[in-house]
Amino acid sequence: MGTEAAPPVGQMRNTGRARRSGLLIAGLALGSSLLVLTPLSLAGLRREAMAVRDGPPVRVELVADGMRFVPNEIRVPAGAVVTVDLVNQDPSGTPHDFQTFRQRRDVRVVAWPGERRTTVFTATDKPGRYPFICTLRGHSAAGMAGVLVVE
Ligand SMILES: [Cu+2]
């Protein structure tokens, strides 16, 4: 019985070796496909850069009204140069600011009560939804936050 049990163990070992070499082949295939894809993504980036150069600039008026931004959603094309006019109309006399995140070039601008302050940022090339907030203590938690939709 002992000699009969031996062959299956040897077969299992062989199967394990076959799986390992299968993984190695899969890894090599993945590696070579990445090499093939790299020039394509570079071309894609170049196309995006051209689109950015051709795209019209965007201008947005953002009103700080109490503990909220109006509007609280801004839509811009990927890579757009965005001019934001932050207008502080909060009757409580509190300063407010506007802070972007994960854009190609982020900005923060502060507007004191009654002020209109202008800033310019460049949107990211990656479409998606990005937060913008007022960084004054407790303001974003109180609802002073919005979404920058990059399309
Ligand atoms: Cu604020």
Notes on the structure:
This protein is an alpha+beta fold and 151 residues long. The chain has 2 domains: 54 residues; 94 residues, Immunoglobulin-like, CATH 2.60.40. Helix content is 35%, strand content 32%. A 5-stranded mixed sheet has the order 3-9-8-5-6, with no helix packed on it. Strands 2-1-4-7 form a 4-stranded mixed sheet, with no helix packed on it. The longest helix has 53 residues. It is globular. The termini are far apart. The N terminus is likely disordered. The chain binds copper (II) ion. The site of copper (II) ion has 5 residues, from loops.
Write the layout of secondary structure elements.
Elements: H1 2-54, E1 58-64, E2 69-70, E3 73-76, E4 81-88, E5 96-100, E6 108-111, E7 116-122, E8 128-133, E9 145-150
Parallel strand pairs: 1-4, 3-9
Antiparallel strand pairs: 1-2, 4-7, 5-6, 5-8, 8-9
The protein binds copper (II) ion.
Copper (II) ion (CU) is lined by residues 96, 134, 136, 139, 144.
What are its keywords?
five-stranded mixed beta sheet; alpha+beta; 2 domains; binds copper (II) ion; 151 residues; 9 strands; Immunoglobulin-like; four-stranded mixed beta sheet
Structure summary, number of beta strands:
9
Query: Can you tell me the residue ranges where pLDDT is under 50 for at least 5 consecutive residues?
Result: 1-18, 23-38
Principal-axis shape equals globular
Give helix and strand order, one letter per element, not per position. Answer: HEEEEEEEEE
Q: For this structure, what is the CATH homologous superfamily of the largest domain?
A: Cupredoxins -  blue copper proteins
What percent of residues adopt helix (DSSP H or I)?
25-40%
- What top-tier CATH class of the largest domain fits best? Mainly Beta
Which cofactor or ligand species appear?
A: copper (II) ion
Strand residue percentage: 25-35%
Instruction: Kindly report the spatial arrangement of strands forming the biggest sheet.
Output: 3-9-8-5-6
Count of DSSP H/I helices: 1
User: Major sheet, described briefly?
Assistant: 5 strands, mixed
